[in-house]
């Protein structure tokens, strides 16, 4: 068993255990080389089978492909005691599940704001061909400042990735599964959309859409039938949730469309599409259920007898005090754009270390109409190399860095924002003058 103070890969000193699950334990650790706080995921001593090792390596490969401000980043895969360990971004936070357990149902505006952040990260994952497969309240982390991030790509699967579990097995957290997945079909982008809807429904109503049951088999049967009571609260948010929770996966919005819907609710704008088609069957379920039962059912479970494996490593719930990163520096500059520009951009260094830094750029629509595309440009710092760009397309030469929108974030409503980011090699530069132009 790992111990406090133990050094992993001659670099990461374990500080305290912050989470555990069926696969392993997650520790807060200090990167002795860069002087920053990270999270380290290690396999449990009794879960070091070839399949468990392959699953952790796959998590590193799959999640390592994704760089997004609302997804927990995988920095690297290292070896300890002959087994792989994941080094992850550390976010002082609490899980959405813990927040609901403490406060009960959350206000619609807060739920929509969390939803649009998570949908943005999942839309980026889908654009990379990654299906998360376990979107739930346990895998949504909320920082003290309201920043939300999706975590635990342990059972995620990318296009072209093989599986380390039998194809007959169902993998995921039961209360948040899509009906087709509960029936034994392969998880898809559309099932991630449903699971996000179930996660947000739970936050809005205080209980999952299919209720809770100490018998997970009975719960799975209700999920397969897709019978639930429509949300009582939320107004426009309730309408959006019904779209995400449509029984017919072909009738659900894409994750990028879900992001637009949730952003519209969060910003008080009209919904951008017509109400969903009929077809979702509804059934009243029990309402007043003890929270302890919710925790029992929504947690990871292993249904071996029925050939159903349901598991996830739950990120630990942390008290809400924000922890400063001693190596992180943050600077912000807002662009000056021409009078005819319909957008502006804010360039922010969100993290820096010796020889490198990370940037997030927020693009805002300043026109009265919706934009259908945008381009952000600035002069590059001499000798700097930009890589790992997310949510955009990069073009760089000696005189200009140009980033154009990705397919899923091209359209921006009036007053709304989107963002992209990147990691660069070189010392943190002086603030560049950034310009934004539009395609419509």
Walk me through what this model shows.
The protein is of the alpha+beta class and 440 residues long. It has 9 helices and 23 strands. Strands 1, 2, 3, 4, 5, 6 and 14 form a 7-stranded antiparallel sheet that branches. Strands 15-16-17-22-19 form a 5-stranded antiparallel sheet, with no helix packed on it. A 4-stranded antiparallel sheet has the order 20-21-18-23, with no helix packed on it. 45% of the residues are buried.
What are the defining features of this structure?
440 residues; alpha+beta; seven-stranded antiparallel sheet; five-stranded antiparallel sheet; globular
**Helix content, binned percent:** 10-25%
| Cα shape | globular
Oligomer class? single chain
- Poorly predicted regions are 158-170, 274-339
Count of alpha and pi helical runs: 9
Rg calculated over all Cα atoms: 22 Å
Question: Can you describe this structure in just a few lines?
Answer:
By secondary structure, the protein is α+β, with helices and mostly antiparallel strands. Helices cover 23% and strands 28% of the residues. The protein is globular and about 60 Å long.
């Amino acid at each position: 068993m790992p111990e406090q103070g133990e050094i992993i890969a001659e670099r990461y000193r374990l500080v305290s255990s912050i989470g555990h699950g069926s696969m392993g334990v997650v520790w807060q650790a200090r990167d002795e080389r860069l002087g920053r706080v990270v999270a380290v995921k290690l396999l449990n001593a009794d879960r070091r089978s070839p399949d468990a090792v392959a699953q952790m390596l796959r998590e590193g490969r799959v999640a390592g492909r994704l760089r997004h401000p609302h997804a927990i980043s995988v920095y690297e895969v290292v070896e300890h005691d002959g087994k792989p360990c994941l080094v992850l971004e550390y976010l002082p936070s609490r899980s959405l599940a813990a927040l609901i357990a403490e406060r009960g149902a959350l206000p619609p505006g807060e739920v929509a704001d969390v939803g649009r952040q998570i949908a943005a990260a999942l839309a980026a994952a889908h654009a990379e061909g990654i299906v998360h497969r376990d979107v739930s309240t346990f895998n949504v982390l909320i920082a003290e400042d309201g920043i939300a991030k999706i975590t635990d790509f342990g059972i995620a699967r990318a296009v072209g990735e093989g599986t380390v579990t039998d194809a007959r097995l169902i993998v995921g957290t039961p209360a948040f599964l899509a009906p087709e997945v509960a029936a034994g079909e392969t998880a898809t982008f559309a099932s991630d959309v449903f699971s996000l809807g179930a996660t947000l429904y739970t936050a809005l109503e205080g209980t999952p859409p299919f209720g809770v049951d100490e018998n997970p088999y009975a719960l799975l049967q209700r999920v397969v039938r897709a019978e639930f009571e429509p949300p009582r609260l939320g107004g426009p948010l309730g309408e959006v949730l019904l779209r995400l929770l449509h029984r017919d996966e072909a009738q659900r919005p894409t994750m990028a469309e879900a992001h637009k819907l949730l952003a519209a609710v969060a910003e008080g704008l009209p919904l951008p599409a017509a109400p969903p088609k009929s077809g979702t069957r509804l059934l009243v379920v029990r309402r007043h259920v003890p929270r302890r039962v919710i925790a029992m059912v929504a947690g990871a479970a292993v249904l071996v007898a029925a050939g159903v494996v349901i598991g996830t490593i739950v990120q630990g719930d942390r008290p809400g005090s924000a922890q400063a990163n001693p190596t992180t520096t943050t600077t912000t500059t807002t662009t000056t754009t021409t009078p005819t520009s319909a957008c502006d951009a804010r360039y922010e260094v969100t993290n820096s270390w010796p020889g490198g830094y990370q940037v997030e750029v927020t693009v805002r629509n300043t026109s009265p109409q919706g934009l259908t595309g945008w381009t952000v440009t600035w002069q590059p710092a001499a000798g700097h190399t930009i890589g790992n760009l997310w949510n955009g397309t990069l073009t760089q030469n000696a005189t200009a860095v140009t980033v154009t929108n990705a397919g899923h974030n091209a359209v921006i409503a009036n007053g709304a924002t989107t963002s992209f980011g990147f990691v660069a090699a070189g010392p943190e530069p002086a603030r560049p003058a950034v310009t934004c132009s539009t395609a419509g």
